[in-house]
Amino acid sequence: MLRARADSPSYRDLEKSAATLGRGRALPRTTLGEVLRGRRFPSKAFLLTFVELCGIQPGEMQAWENTWNRLAVQYKVTEPTEGREAHPPQLVVHTRKRIGELEEQTSQLRTRLRQQGQALEQAARALTAVGAALQRQGHWAEAEAVYATVVELQRVPPASDVQILVRAQRGIVEILIAQGRYGDAETAAELLAGECVKELGADHTETLGAQQLLAALRSAPPPPPSPSPGAARPEPAGGSEPLVLVGTDVTERRPDRTASRGRVAGALPAIWNLEPRNPEFTGRDNILRALRQRFGQGGPSMVQTLRGPGGVGKTQIAVEYAHRHSDAYDLVWWVAAEDPSLVGEQIAALAVELGLVEQGTDTATAAAVVKSQLRGRDRWLIIFDNAEERAAVSEWLPGGPGHVLITSRAGGWERVAATVPVDVMGESESVALLQAHCPELSHGEAESLAEELDYLPLALCQAGGFLAETATEVGDYVQLLHTHPAALLSEGEAGDYPRSLAAVIGLSLDQLTRADPIGLTTVRVCALLAPESIPVRWLMAVDDITTGDDEALAPLAEVAGDEMLLRRAIGTAVRFGLAKSNRDGVRLHRLVQGVIRDLLPASSRERVRRHARALLVANRPGDPEDPATWPEWARIVPHLLAVEPTTPTDPHLRTLSCDTSWYLIERGDADAGDRLARPLREAWLRDLGPDDVHVLWVTRCLARALREQGRYEEARVLYDDTLPRYRRVLGRKHTDSLRLAHGSAINLRLLGRYEEARALQAATLESYRQVLGEDHPHSLHSANHLAVDLGTLGHHDEARRLHEDTLARYRRVLGDDHPDTLRSANHLAADLIALGEYAEARALDEDTLERCRRTFGEEHPYTLRAAVSYATILRKLGRLQPALALQETTLVRSRQILGADHPQSLRAGHALCEILLHLNLLDRAADLQEETVRRYRRVLGDDHPETRNAVDLLEKISERRTPGRKK
């Protein structure tokens, strides 16, 4: 009936525990061991006390007592007394038998109780979800009743999942707050906090949240009278601010607040890269409310655009919205979208932040991974700031249940987003904004100044900051504003900034000129760079830069070797509202930059631009092929674009520009590399001629970008024109000449000109080995591709030997997981397949695919190539179903990442059709192969070997579908 376990409490512990039951009860002085071993029949007091200590519910005690009574009558047992003799052996035997029977009954009872508990837990979970839905819809009374039922269910029997009980109790607190019943809410919050401490511990996040909730309720102002049950939520009386708690918002309903409840009130999401909240943000409630309401509607409103002219505060509204509604999101990510070529880098950074990819993963793969992740989750917000082109943003929109907010001066967003217009502020908002920046202003002064500034938010902020910093009288400020406009706006067109904004910036510059000449020179240099963070160490690179006696740059000579002097100058510029600074560096707003540039005389502007270019050259990150340098290259790219790199006057800048294009291609963004290299080549070719070394260099960048995009014929034209020039200018064995020859040979093979490719690559390899040695990475690249050329020509034994030697060297020089090593392994596996050595090929392909997935992710082009190769060997081995599943997935991913017309996507489609043919799925195979042949003919032409192979496969499929049909 009662069996001891290894972890059973000792008799003395049971005796102590029994004392806590109250009512003067205690275990009688029999030993636990004698009772459990059947040597002594337990007294009724012992039995009832013992089973109560074991957790039997009070309602079941009567059954235990009745059982004892039946046994006592059957065996004529009475309450034990001191000195009682031992039971006869027959009684012991019968007692043990009954103990076994009762033990079995107890086991069955516990099983039923456990099943009932599981059913109750499932019901509690379902009811909690119903309560949450009712709460979101505002059905407070019904939701409170449901939550109360959950609490009751979880208390009897005790909850197996305390989180359900806590969620229900917190739901009750939130409903009471929403109804304005703050007294009841405080009482419920006390119970919740106590329950959390008892069940979860003092350091649990739920406990901390409950205590924070209780503290907020206790510190809240006296509430208005409670409304009647079921009434709508009351507005805060007297215009006072409502009580706002984590997971609870009295002023508006928010979707699915449960995920933020573990955060302390006011805490930001873990994934967050926004700048700090502007404590002086004022007004714009109508716009913020419209954004929230539209996001709540779902559908097309999941993407919204704040559209308006420059300086109206679109960016600040977006920042305020994210901070104000941060508890509704688990991820908020800011993307500076002014330069389309840099958007992908920032999306890729989000993938790294989420832990989806490793640092250094190419942009296309990282972006595809993060977009796929976001499509499967909610509670995220992505903000694209200052997007000027719809195409630059639309390709990066993740889709799915999250929210996207765009700010833009341009129109044409209707096809991808709901537009929220943003104009200048109203008079009352403008007055409030000015007084927030300069509290000393009277209402009348603020009104007149706001009118002079045309109610433009950026101008209002800067004017208020200027007045507060300089203690200037409003009348003097207005007079200065009237005397400066003609001079300030005479340099170029006003563009996106209005008269009042330019005047304010001019006044701040005047003040900065008097206060800190170094600060003035610094903002002038920054104005010629991009509106992105500029590391202070960049600005310190003046030792090798000649400033001369140029008045615009002369103050920088004092900065050499004195970083604190420069930082103080930046601080002065920040105080005058001309710059912002953080740990990443100093940054000027794009409108401030525009005004400063216009204020510089043309001659000074060009000298400052040359200095900015020199700063970039002096801070070149390093080898663009080294992934360790890629974060710094990503930072330098926007600033390079801002200094007009097409100029031919600075050879160092041309070198930096070529390296930047190569970096973009290496990172996997061939489109961005193309967009940078093409205008550079056009400008330099016109001004420097076709044989200039930088023209040759940028042509090599452009040719490779075209080749990576699958535009082989365009790349061939450039290779054919440039290779003779390289050899004539630099020599046949110059490493740059060899690199171009190597790229040209690869392109010839991709064009189907296999023998030409082999001959050129063989000569290149020989020269590489003479110049750099056999183990240099460039020599290995050439050997790897020469082996591929041999394989395409049918020389599989020779290709295999060269591939095996090259792969061994790659592994020794670069490591097993280097991209070039993995690519070489794939090529060797193709040779093994061609030679019929399927088992060895499968082992190598399987290992390579696993390494690619681990290193690059599922959607990297290298991984896609490895997947096609592995699916091929599976087909060869007769494992058709696994091959089909893998190849179908690979084709979908190839088309998503590279496009349906990319040659690699066509090869994936061709490989899938071969599997379908072996499975006798002829209709599917015919439809897909007909489409593949059409694309091959359009992309590569009728005479390309791959096109002819595709046509041959289509003929085989057609023959199988219609036996006896002639080709």
State the major sheet.
Answer: 6 strands, parallel
Order of strands across the biggest sheet? 3-5-6-7-4-8
Oligomer: single chain
The total count of strands amounts to 10
Look at the structure and give the mean pLDDT: 79
From the helix content, strand content and strand pairing, which structural class follows?
A: mainly alpha
Can I get a quick summary?
The chain is mainly α and 967 residues long. The relative contact order is 0.03.
Tell me about this structure:
With 967 residues, the chain is mainly alpha-helical. Helices cover 62% and strands 4% of the residues. The strands form three sheets. The chain has a six-stranded parallel sheet, with helices on both faces. A two-stranded antiparallel sheet has the order 1-2. A two-stranded antiparallel ribbon has the order 9-10. Helix 14 (390-394) links the parallel strand 6 (380-385) and strand 7. Helix 5 packs parallel to helix 7 (162-178) and helix 29 (693-708) packs parallel to helix 31. The radius of gyration is 38 Å and the shape is flat. The N and C termini lie far apart (86 Å).
